[in-house]
Predict the structure.
Amino acid sequence: MADKLKFTIDGVEVQAEHGQTILDAADAAGIYIPRLCAHPDLKPIGSCRICTVVVNGRPQAACVQPAAEGMVVENDTPEMLEHRRNLIDMMFVEGNHFCMFCEKSGNCELQAMAYRFGITAPQYPSQFPDKDVDASHPDVMMDYNRCILCTRCVRASQELDGKNVFQSIGRGFGRKIGVNGRQALGDTDLNVDDRAADPTICPVGCIIKKRVGFEVPIGERKFDHEPIGSEIEKG
Ligand code: FES
């Protein structure tokens, strides 16, 4: 068996280790495949479908699909752009995302993705769902209006913190993130230093640390000057 296998992404030859996902091989080759639920420190679950690519003519989630010798992957095509735009649009209207008031603005992966895809206003009607804000924890708050159900907090708590603070509960439109406290986040064993509370885990402004808001001013934040994915494209 050859050490590495070869395949193409949009006609560019890419090498991958055996067992490596398409997403990881693309990252290593400096090709950005958009993603939201995937995180380099967490096991991928293929839930948001933003990373969908066409593999040998069939749609597959790049974050969970292993690379294979000779596969032909289409990533940066008008069809995939349209698919991703639709998903991002739906995430915006299914929550209450008021970027101009959000502490995560400029560091938010959802907002940055929308900018990268040229979305300035959603094409679907806003649902304006009735969501809670949980400020019961002394150091961390949760604004469910902004949650996109990526479950990165669920996996970080389990895989990195060895806890079980967050869970995905319910199904369909009623699905939401629950906490393992009797009533609210303040009843859980979440510590402010847990990875699950780290701002790089929640891609949006749902899990926010208290008393550090706007520590980095608007204009100096991660995506204020460079689009999301540019760090991968720069290699
Ligand atoms: S990043 Fe692959 S499904 Fe979410």
